[in-house]
Amino acid sequence: MNYDFYMRAALTEARAAAEAGERPDGAVAVVDEALVARGREQVRSSGDPTAHAVVMTIREAARRLGTSSLSGLTVFCAIEPCAMCVGALLESDADALVFAVPDPMVGAAGSVVQLATGDRLTRRLQVVSGILQSDATELRLAYADGRDARSGAAPRRS
Ligand SMILES: [Zn+2]
Fold first, then answer.
1. Rounded to the nearest whole angstrom, what is the distance from the C-alpha of residue 33 to the centroid of ligand 1?
2. Distance between CA 20 and CA 9 in Å, rounded?
3. Per-residue pLDDT for the chain (158 aa), expressed as one digit of tens each?
């Protein structure tokens, strides 16, 4: 599987989310090398706190494939998913998760908690991280700078 190619597509969604004033996260879903769904963070625009990129993408994949059991699915996303999103991946029977940058605040695929690969749940995901990490990090920093500029605070790069 061409990890860079699909991650680039996820980062395109993340960029669109950032341009819409959302957290810069985007995702795509892939089955048998075919891109079957795309999604991006839409929490602010929709007023739905669960409208994270991974959840939006899983919903779209299930709708397009006409099934709620998404075995064979790999989801690529810019930012390490939260507990809700990893939970949604597990509930959907997806096979694998690929993300670009870890999230030290809420990441649930190893950074804060590990829900994806543990042996206490009956389902688990293959996890690959660090694909196009520098591109995704730049995107996050640009978003943080823009947010600071909008709020009148000095830009920071930490
Ligand atoms: Zn999430």
1. 24
2. 17
3. 899 999 999 999 999 999 999 999 999 999 999 999 999 999 999 999 999 999 999 999 999 999 999 999 999 999 999 999 999 999 999 999 999 999 999 999 999 999 999 888 889 999 999 999 999 999 888 887 777 666 655 555 54
Comparing CA positions, the residue from 55, 1, 2, 3 lying closest to residue 27 is 55
Query: What spacing in Å lies between the alpha carbon of 107 and ligand 1's midpoint?
Result: 9
Pick from 127, 129, 73: which is nearest to 100 by CA?
A: 129
Q: How far is the CA of 60 from the centre of ligand 1 (A)?
A: 15
Sign (positive or negative) of CA dihedral 3, 29, 55, 141: positive
Q: Is 25 exposed, middle or buried (0-12, 13-18, 19+ CB in 10 A)?
A: buried
Helices (H), the chain: 3-19, 43-46, 53-65, 83-91, 133-151
